[in-house]
Amino acid sequence: SLPPPPPLSCPNSPGGSSAPASPTAHYALTLTPTHIHVQRLSSRPGKESRLLLPLAELLGCSCPRAPAPPLLVLYWYPPGRRRKGVSRRRQVRAYLAESRAEAEKWCAGIQCLLREQFFFLIGPEFCKSMMPRPRRLLLLVNPFSGRGQAMQWCQTHILPMIREASISYNLIQTERQNHARELIREISLPEWDGIIIISGDGLLHEVINGLMERPDWEQAIKTPVGILPCGSGNALAGSINHYAG
Asked: Where is the composition biased (Low complexity) (predicted)?
Protein backbone atom coordinates (compact mmCIF):
# COMPACT_ATOMS: atom_id res chain seq x y z
CA SER A 1 0.00 0.00 0.00
CA LEU A 2 1.10 3.57 -0.66
CA PRO A 3 1.72 6.05 2.17
CA PRO A 4 -0.95 8.70 2.86
CA PRO A 5 -0.29 12.36 2.02
CA PRO A 6 1.56 14.31 4.72
CA PRO A 7 -0.34 16.91 6.75
CA LEU A 8 -0.53 20.45 5.42
CA SER A 9 -2.10 23.60 6.81
CA CYS A 10 -4.39 26.25 5.35
CA PRO A 11 -4.36 29.27 7.66
CA ASN A 12 -6.64 32.34 7.66
CA SER A 13 -9.74 30.37 6.76
CA PRO A 14 -12.93 32.28 5.99
CA GLY A 15 -14.86 29.27 7.26
CA GLY A 16 -17.78 27.50 5.59
CA SER A 17 -21.48 27.94 5.02
CA SER A 18 -22.44 25.74 7.96
CA ALA A 19 -20.27 27.46 10.53
CA PRO A 20 -19.12 30.94 9.46
CA ALA A 21 -15.90 32.01 11.10
CA SER A 22 -14.09 35.23 11.62
CA PRO A 23 -11.89 36.26 8.66
CA THR A 24 -8.95 36.34 11.08
CA ALA A 25 -9.49 32.79 12.33
CA HIS A 26 -6.70 30.31 11.66
CA TYR A 27 -7.18 26.63 10.86
CA ALA A 28 -4.86 23.66 10.53
CA LEU A 29 -5.97 20.91 8.15
CA THR A 30 -4.69 17.34 8.10
CA LEU A 31 -5.50 14.95 5.26
CA THR A 32 -5.71 11.20 5.87
CA PRO A 33 -6.88 8.41 3.54
CA THR A 34 -10.38 8.60 5.06
CA HIS A 35 -10.91 12.06 6.60
CA ILE A 36 -10.02 15.72 6.59
CA HIS A 37 -9.27 16.88 10.12
CA VAL A 38 -9.97 20.59 10.67
CA GLN A 39 -8.51 22.18 13.79
CA ARG A 40 -9.33 25.76 14.63
CA LEU A 41 -6.34 27.45 16.22
CA SER A 42 -6.94 29.93 19.02
CA SER A 43 -4.71 32.11 21.13
CA ARG A 44 -6.84 31.25 24.16
CA PRO A 45 -6.29 27.87 25.83
CA GLY A 46 -9.24 25.56 25.54
CA LYS A 47 -10.86 27.50 22.70
CA GLU A 48 -9.85 25.11 19.92
CA SER A 49 -12.68 23.58 17.92
CA ARG A 50 -12.37 20.45 15.80
CA LEU A 51 -14.23 19.18 12.78
CA LEU A 52 -13.93 15.78 11.15
CA LEU A 53 -14.97 15.61 7.48
CA PRO A 54 -15.28 12.02 6.19
CA LEU A 55 -14.14 11.75 2.59
CA ALA A 56 -17.14 9.48 2.01
CA GLU A 57 -19.36 12.56 2.51
CA LEU A 58 -17.20 14.85 0.35
CA LEU A 59 -18.42 15.23 -3.22
CA GLY A 60 -15.40 17.13 -4.51
CA CYS A 61 -13.19 20.16 -4.16
CA SER A 62 -11.86 23.01 -6.24
CA CYS A 63 -9.18 25.68 -6.32
CA PRO A 64 -10.41 28.85 -8.09
CA ARG A 65 -8.06 30.23 -10.72
CA ALA A 66 -6.21 33.52 -10.40
CA PRO A 67 -6.92 36.36 -9.80
CA ALA A 68 -9.14 34.73 -7.15
CA PRO A 69 -7.46 34.12 -3.76
CA PRO A 70 -5.73 30.73 -3.30
CA LEU A 71 -8.73 28.97 -1.78
CA LEU A 72 -9.36 25.32 -1.13
CA VAL A 73 -13.14 24.89 -1.55
CA LEU A 74 -14.76 21.72 -0.20
CA TYR A 75 -18.23 20.53 -1.27
CA TRP A 76 -19.62 18.55 1.63
CA TYR A 77 -22.91 16.64 1.76
CA PRO A 78 -23.33 15.33 5.33
CA PRO A 79 -26.35 13.10 5.98
CA GLY A 80 -29.34 14.51 7.79
CA ARG A 81 -32.64 13.05 8.87
CA ARG A 82 -36.12 13.52 7.58
CA ARG A 83 -39.44 11.85 8.24
CA LYS A 84 -38.69 9.05 5.77
CA GLY A 85 -35.12 7.98 5.07
CA VAL A 86 -31.98 10.10 5.02
CA SER A 87 -31.38 13.35 3.20
CA ARG A 88 -28.16 15.20 2.46
CA ARG A 89 -27.75 18.95 2.68
CA ARG A 90 -25.05 20.78 0.76
CA GLN A 91 -22.38 22.66 2.70
CA VAL A 92 -19.46 24.59 1.26
CA ARG A 93 -16.30 25.23 3.25
CA ALA A 94 -13.51 27.43 1.94
CA TYR A 95 -10.02 27.70 3.42
CA LEU A 96 -7.41 30.24 2.35
CA ALA A 97 -4.01 28.67 1.74
CA GLU A 98 -0.63 30.35 2.09
CA SER A 99 -0.04 30.05 -1.67
CA ARG A 100 -1.80 28.89 -4.82
CA ALA A 101 0.64 25.99 -5.13
CA GLU A 102 -0.36 24.74 -1.69
CA ALA A 103 -4.07 25.06 -2.47
CA GLU A 104 -3.61 23.15 -5.74
CA LYS A 105 -1.60 20.47 -3.93
CA TRP A 106 -4.39 19.99 -1.41
CA CYS A 107 -7.00 19.88 -4.16
CA ALA A 108 -5.00 17.28 -6.10
CA GLY A 109 -4.50 15.13 -3.02
CA ILE A 110 -8.18 15.13 -2.12
CA GLN A 111 -9.22 14.30 -5.67
CA CYS A 112 -6.80 11.38 -5.75
CA LEU A 113 -8.14 10.00 -2.49
CA LEU A 114 -11.74 10.40 -3.69
CA ARG A 115 -10.74 8.21 -6.64
CA GLU A 116 -9.04 5.78 -4.23
CA GLN A 117 -5.58 6.72 -5.43
CA PHE A 118 -2.64 8.13 -3.49
CA PHE A 119 -0.31 10.83 -4.76
CA PHE A 120 3.36 11.40 -4.02
CA LEU A 121 5.07 14.64 -3.11
CA ILE A 122 8.43 15.16 -4.76
CA GLY A 123 10.16 17.96 -2.94
CA PRO A 124 7.77 20.94 -2.86
CA GLU A 125 5.78 19.65 -5.85
CA PHE A 126 3.42 16.76 -6.38
CA CYS A 127 3.69 14.39 -9.32
CA LYS A 128 0.93 15.45 -11.74
CA SER A 129 1.27 12.23 -13.71
CA MET A 130 -0.27 10.45 -10.71
CA MET A 131 -3.48 12.46 -11.06
CA PRO A 132 -6.45 10.42 -12.27
CA ARG A 133 -8.24 11.69 -15.36
CA PRO A 134 -11.71 13.12 -14.78
CA ARG A 135 -14.53 10.62 -15.09
CA ARG A 136 -16.64 10.97 -18.23
CA LEU A 137 -20.39 10.46 -18.09
CA LEU A 138 -23.03 10.37 -20.79
CA LEU A 139 -26.21 12.02 -19.52
CA LEU A 140 -29.48 11.18 -21.23
CA VAL A 141 -32.42 13.45 -20.41
CA ASN A 142 -36.00 13.01 -21.49
CA PRO A 143 -37.23 16.65 -21.41
CA PHE A 144 -40.86 15.49 -21.32
CA SER A 145 -40.44 13.49 -18.09
CA GLY A 146 -41.88 14.70 -14.83
CA ARG A 147 -44.54 16.79 -16.54
CA GLY A 148 -41.83 18.51 -18.54
CA GLN A 149 -39.66 19.45 -15.55
CA ALA A 150 -36.83 16.90 -15.96
CA MET A 151 -34.48 19.34 -17.73
CA GLN A 152 -35.10 22.01 -15.13
CA TRP A 153 -34.34 19.56 -12.31
CA CYS A 154 -31.21 18.49 -14.16
CA GLN A 155 -29.94 22.06 -14.51
CA THR A 156 -30.75 23.15 -10.97
CA HIS A 157 -29.82 20.04 -8.97
CA ILE A 158 -27.84 17.47 -10.96
CA LEU A 159 -25.39 19.42 -13.13
CA PRO A 160 -24.07 21.58 -10.25
CA MET A 161 -23.20 18.43 -8.27
CA ILE A 162 -21.52 16.83 -11.29
CA ARG A 163 -19.36 19.94 -11.75
CA GLU A 164 -18.47 19.99 -8.04
CA ALA A 165 -17.27 16.41 -8.41
CA SER A 166 -15.00 17.45 -11.33
CA ILE A 167 -16.77 15.04 -13.68
CA SER A 168 -16.69 15.60 -17.43
CA TYR A 169 -20.01 14.97 -19.15
CA ASN A 170 -21.98 15.19 -22.36
CA LEU A 171 -25.71 15.88 -22.04
CA ILE A 172 -28.13 14.70 -24.72
CA GLN A 173 -31.86 15.40 -24.72
CA THR A 174 -33.89 12.64 -26.32
CA GLU A 175 -36.18 13.84 -29.10
CA ARG A 176 -38.43 10.88 -29.83
CA GLN A 177 -39.31 7.37 -28.76
CA ASN A 178 -36.37 4.91 -29.07
CA HIS A 179 -33.90 7.79 -29.60
CA ALA A 180 -31.81 6.61 -26.62
CA ARG A 181 -32.04 3.00 -27.79
CA GLU A 182 -30.63 3.89 -31.21
CA LEU A 183 -27.95 6.12 -29.71
CA ILE A 184 -26.66 3.53 -27.23
CA ARG A 185 -26.64 0.89 -29.95
CA GLU A 186 -24.21 2.94 -32.08
CA ILE A 187 -21.98 5.00 -29.77
CA SER A 188 -18.40 4.18 -28.78
CA LEU A 189 -18.85 2.99 -25.21
CA PRO A 190 -15.13 3.01 -24.20
CA GLU A 191 -15.28 6.82 -24.29
CA TRP A 192 -17.57 6.82 -21.25
CA ASP A 193 -17.22 5.66 -17.67
CA GLY A 194 -20.96 5.40 -17.24
CA ILE A 195 -24.40 6.29 -18.57
CA ILE A 196 -26.76 8.33 -16.42
CA ILE A 197 -30.47 8.38 -17.19
CA ILE A 198 -32.36 11.49 -16.06
CA SER A 199 -35.93 10.50 -16.74
CA GLY A 200 -38.63 8.04 -15.74
CA ASP A 201 -38.60 4.28 -16.16
CA GLY A 202 -39.10 4.24 -19.95
CA LEU A 203 -35.67 5.64 -20.84
CA LEU A 204 -33.96 3.01 -18.70
CA HIS A 205 -35.66 0.29 -20.75
CA GLU A 206 -34.45 1.94 -23.97
CA VAL A 207 -30.84 2.07 -22.75
CA ILE A 208 -30.81 -1.57 -21.63
CA ASN A 209 -32.33 -2.67 -24.94
CA GLY A 210 -29.76 -0.61 -26.84
CA LEU A 211 -26.91 -2.25 -24.94
CA MET A 212 -28.29 -5.72 -25.59
CA GLU A 213 -28.68 -5.07 -29.33
CA ARG A 214 -25.00 -4.21 -29.84
CA PRO A 215 -22.64 -6.73 -31.49
CA ASP A 216 -20.44 -6.45 -28.36
CA TRP A 217 -23.40 -6.79 -25.99
CA GLU A 218 -21.62 -9.16 -23.62
CA GLN A 219 -19.09 -6.43 -22.80
CA ALA A 220 -21.48 -3.51 -23.34
CA ILE A 221 -23.95 -4.72 -20.71
CA LYS A 222 -21.18 -4.33 -18.10
CA THR A 223 -21.21 -0.55 -18.64
CA PRO A 224 -22.26 1.18 -15.39
CA VAL A 225 -25.78 2.59 -15.78
CA GLY A 226 -27.41 4.90 -13.24
CA ILE A 227 -30.83 6.46 -13.04
CA LEU A 228 -31.80 9.76 -11.44
CA PRO A 229 -35.57 9.47 -11.34
CA CYS A 230 -37.37 12.47 -12.81
CA GLY A 231 -40.56 10.80 -13.99
CA SER A 232 -44.06 10.80 -12.60
CA GLY A 233 -44.08 7.39 -10.92
CA ASN A 234 -40.45 6.18 -10.87
CA ALA A 235 -41.53 2.70 -9.74
CA LEU A 236 -38.59 0.89 -11.32
CA ALA A 237 -36.04 3.35 -9.92
CA GLY A 238 -37.68 3.00 -6.51
CA SER A 239 -37.44 -0.79 -6.66
CA ILE A 240 -33.78 -0.68 -7.69
CA ASN A 241 -33.00 1.70 -4.84
CA HIS A 242 -34.90 -0.47 -2.36
CA TYR A 243 -33.16 -3.73 -3.27
CA ALA A 244 -29.77 -2.02 -3.46
CA GLY A 245 -30.13 -1.16 0.22
From this structure: 10-23
